[in-house]
Amino acid sequence: MAAGSSSKTTGDSPHLSEIRVVLLGNEVDKSKVVKSILGCRDLTGENVGQCMLYEGDQAGRKISVVEAPGWNSMQQTPESIKKSIRRSVSLNPPGPHALLLVIPVKRNEVPSTGDIKAEMHMELLSERIWKHTIVLFACDEGVGEFAVKAYIPKAKKILEKCKGRTYVLERDSKISELLQKIEDLVEENCGDVFIPQTYYELFEWKRVDLRRRRRSLEWNPPDMTKGKPDFVNEPQALLMHYFKPISVIALAVFGALLGAVTGAEYGVSGAGAGLLLGSILAVFLAFLIFEVTENRTN
């Protein structure tokens, strides 16, 4: 269910306890639409910049309606109006359940394409707007649903964007039907409300950051037993590197001493010859042993 709303049940029909909507459209009097939604004749609203905020109760629900300022063509709409349109969706936090694009249906009048061309103004609020938009045809006194058919071809592109969601508001219309359409829209959007762009960007950033954190937690660290840096086994590496020369020198010294002791029986010259011969034999023996050991290893 949408944030900031709870669900109540009347009989077998569950509904939102609160409905928040924003009225958008060109420079027309939207007060008739507000009165119909709130079910009152006299309006008392709060002026918030160039927007109007109205609150009331209807059919057991708390209703909040924000009326955004109207627009001309995009080129003729002042920046202050565009800013107020963007701000309108943040005036009933955490966000509206629906945005009603109000199109007036006049007696004996067929609109030009430009009268209904509202895409650029609507998309001041981002393209996400269409997921939450209902086109509301507000009929003048004595103008019925039949007259609306002349407006449908002119609003074709807009209706395609919002998946054909429409409501025809006449004098005797049951506003409960509009509220039900809004609830159906909320259900279609899985309970999501329209989040203002600034909050949406922050939400998206947090969601991306959360995905990154999740990926970092799921990251498998490398097996440190494989391909260890040299400094991890530095003592062992040094020992293996110098083992062969140290062993050769040790054996040479040992052989020299053994040869000198053996040759000492024949005097100084015998000791010298024994030392030289013993060292040579020891070195030869050492290389022979290493060669045999390496061949077996391979």
In a few lines, what is going on in this structure?
The chain is an alpha/beta fold. It contains ten helices and nine strands.
Keywords:
alpha/beta, Rossmann fold, 7-stranded mixed sheet, 10 helices, 45% helix, 17% strand
Structure write-up:
- The structure is a single chain.
- With 298 residues, the chain is α/β, with parallel strands linked by helices.
- The chain folds into two domains: 7-197, P-loop containing nucleotide triphosphate hydrolases (Rossmann fold); 237-297, no CATH class.
- The protein contains ten helices and nine strands.
- It has helices spanning 31-38, 79-88, 113-116, 119-122, 145-148, 156-161, 175-188, 197-218, 234-263, 267-297; strands spanning 7-10, 13-16, 18-24, 46-48, 51-58, 61-67, 98-105, 133-139, 166-169.
- The strands form two sheets. A seven-stranded mixed sheet has the order 4-5-6-3-7-8-9.
- α9 (234-263) runs antiparallel to α10 (267-297).
- The longest helix is centred in the C-terminal third of the chain and has 31 residues, at 267-297.
CATH class of the largest domain: Alpha Beta
- Rg over alpha carbons: 44 Å
- Tell me the overall shape: rod-shaped
Roughly how many Å apart are the termini?
70 Å
Percent helix, as a range, is 40-55%
CATH superfamily descriptor of the largest domain: P-loop containing nucleotide triphosphate hydrolases
The tally of strands reads 9
Helical segment count: 10
The fraction of residues in strands falls at 15-25%
Q: Given the helix and strand composition, which structural class is it?
A: alpha/beta
- Tell me, rounded to a whole number, the average pLDDT: 76
Can you name the CATH architecture of the largest domain?
Answer: 3-Layer(aba) Sandwich
Strand order of the largest sheet: 4-5-6-3-7-8-9
Q: What is the string of SSEs from the N terminus onward?
A: EEEHEEEHEHHEHHEHHHH
